[in-house]
Amino acid sequence: MVATFGVQGASHFAINAEHYAAIAFIRPDPVIPLGVASMLIQGATCALLFPTFDTGKSTIRNALVFSWTIGGFLASYIVLAEAGKYMIPSIPSWILVEGSAAAAQFTIFGLLLGLLHRRPTHV
Predict the structure, then answer these.
(1) Chain segment 72-84, per-residue pLDDT in tens
(2) CA 83, CA 91: separation in Å to the nearest integer?
(3) 101 pLDDT exceeds 90?
(4) Residues 10-47: pLDDT tens digits?
């Protein structure tokens, strides 16, 4: 939730607020509990899947690769399919904003995931 809400909240409500305000199909007052529920489901799913993906070598590197893989899967819908489905003002702008936010979100998530799963070092 930290990575997702931090990046997406900042993008939607501050950094790219004008971009989102120009989209006619977006609610002026989003239903935050639905977004939180989505974040909890996605976070739990990723947390459960990661240990099966981790090869035991570089946990942070593995977590980043895992996060970028899952992120690419999830973001492909938001970045590309929604741009093709909805009447957005500018497809290139949509792809830039949504793609940048997804890249930041899943990079931060991968780093946090790697730190949470790191193995203790023996001194």
Answers:
(1) 999 999 899 888 8
(2) 6
(3) yes
(4) 777 788 788 777 777 777 787 889 988 988 898 888 88
Spatial CA neighbour of 68 closest among 115, 113, 10, 11 = 113
- Residue in the structure block whose two tokens are 């947390």: 47
45 Cβ partners below 8 Å, 6+ apart? none
Q: What is the C-alpha to C-alpha distance for residues 102 and 73, in angstroms, rounded to an integer?
A: 11
Closest to 118 (Cα-Cα) out of 46, 58, 43: 58
Residues 67 and 59 sit within 8 Å (Cβ to Cβ):
no
CA dist 66 and 57 (Å) reads 14
State phi, psi for 121 to the nearest 5 degrees.
Answer: -90, 140
> Is 85:76 a contact under the CB 8 Å cutoff?
no
d(CA 47, CA 7): 19
